[in-house]
Automatic annotation (TrEMBL):
Identification of the protein by name: Uncharacterized protein involved in response to NO
Species per Swiss-Prot/TrEMBL record: Methylohalomonas lacus
Lineage: Bacteria, Pseudomonadati, Pseudomonadota, Gammaproteobacteria, Methylohalomonadales
Keyword Phosphoprotein: no
Transmembrane segments: 12-37, 49-64, 71-90, 96-115, 127-147, 153-173, 194-212, 218-235, 247-270, 276-299, 311-329, 341-362
InterPro entries named among the record's database cross-references: NnrS
Keywords: Membrane, Transmembrane, Transmembrane helix
Pfam families: NnrS
């Protein structure tokens, strides 16, 4: 790699980890302790997590190595947009910075994705483009009162689920196949293209139906089907045979994603509130997969493992704890505040561990290539 270029994850992954670790406790302080700062969290943290945290992860993973001046400029746009959105969410500055970041980033990311040969690989390009453009569309459509915020956030969560199914599935398939081969076996169910294609079609259909009035039950049925297919795909990887910490964590994230799609589909089908089901996806799946993938990318680039086993197990357990506590807050009203605070703490601790790893506070140990621990 040319010295003039810098991998995007060097900036965006630590920033995303810090963003996640700080934002949720701040949001809980607004919700539970009566804080009124920052103003951008007055209506909750869902929008900022989707448009700030998630887009930072996507930029870090997909931008790749960039000339340093360009990367610093893109990162500065993201950082300025996040500060403006938190401090002055309705300002003209915020209205300029957020679109500027997403448009500039999409300009450098989407063409690379469109160059893929297979349609399943090319399909990720419009998906990423829509996710990048969603903050602009959200603001315009809500301001014009054409849509309420909730359906647009549901639309974004469904598309985010598709992105996690696609990228998480590709990473798991390659890593599991490599580990099974190292142990003398052969994994025949790798990418599972027919199941992957079905998931792409179903999630795109569900996203479209989710913003069409009167199609709530149909959306739920499609999501239920997608959840079942995702669960089948996970089982066919046979990750329990790999006995590797990073694959355990990746499998846990994919498990939360399948369960979240099933729960979201069931609540929509039955006409119930879907906040709890959405948090299974945004806490359990997004939390586990984002931490694990960011850590793997970092460790593979270093060719070292920073106490890899304990890190992957600890963060997966912390995110699982945060997910379960968030669900308890819905079903045990007498313990709502306690459950929310504890869930927030578990989530933040997991991302602080990731931040420590990315910044080198967790000292790397043995090389990755040794015994193929995370080399896949």
């Amino acid at each position: 790699m040319a010295r003039s270029k810098l991998p995007a994850q060097r900036l965006f992954f630590p920033a995303a980890a810090l963003h996640a670790a700080v934002l949720i406790p701040l949001s809980m302080a607004n919700l539970l302790a009566g804080w009124s700062w920052p103003a951008g969290l007055a209506a909750g943290h869902g929008r900022e997590m989707l448009f700030g945290f998630v887009l930072a992860l996507i930029a870090g993973y997909l931008l790749g190595p960039q000339p340093r001046p360009r990367l610093y400029g893109i990162f500065a746009l993201w950082l300025a947009a996040r500060i403006a959105a938190l401090v002055a969410p309705a300002s003209v500055v915020t209205g300029f910075l957020s679109p500027a970041f997403v448009l500039v980033t999409a300009w450098f990311v989407v063409p690379k994705l469109l160059a893929a040969k297979k349609w399943r690989n090319r399909s990720i390009a419009p998906l990423v483009l829509v996710l990048f453009l969603l903050p602009i569309g959200y603001q315009v459509l809500v301001d014009l009162q054409w849509f309420a915020p909730a359906p647009l956030l549901l639309f974004g969560i469904i598309l985010l689920s598709l992105l996690m199914l696609f990228m998480g599935g590709r990473i798991i398939a390659a890593a599991a196949a490599g580990e099974v081969q190292r142990r003398g076996g052969r994994l025949t169910a790798r990418v599972q293209p027919s199941l992957e294609a079905a998931l792409i079609i179903l999630l795109v259909l569900a996203a479209v139906l989710s913003v069409v009035p009167g199609w709530r039950m149909a959306t739920g049925l499609v999501l239920l089907t997608a959840g079942l297919i995702a669960g089948l795909r996970l089982i066919r990887w046979r990750l329990w045979q790999c006995r590797r910490a990073d694959l355990f964590a990746l499998g846990a994230g994919y498990f939360w994603l399948a369960i979240g799609l099933l729960a979201l589909g069931a609540t929509l089908l039955l006409g119930n509130g879907y906040s709890g089901a959405m948090h299974v996806i945004t806490i359990g799946a997004l939390g586990t997969l984002s931490i694990t993938i960011a850590a793997r990318v970092h460790l593979i680039n270093l060719q070292q493992a920073a106490a890899a086993g304990p890190f992957f197990y600890a963060t997966a357990v912390l995110i699982a704890l945060a997910t379960l506590l968030r669900l308890l807050a819905v079903h045990l009203p007498g313990y709502t505040m306690t459950s929310l605070w504890l869930a927030s703490g578990a989530w933040s601790l997991a991302y602080l561990l990731l931040l420590a790893l990315l910044l080198g506070a967790l000292t790397p140990g043995r090389g990755l290539k040794r015994r193929g621990e995370i080399a896949c």
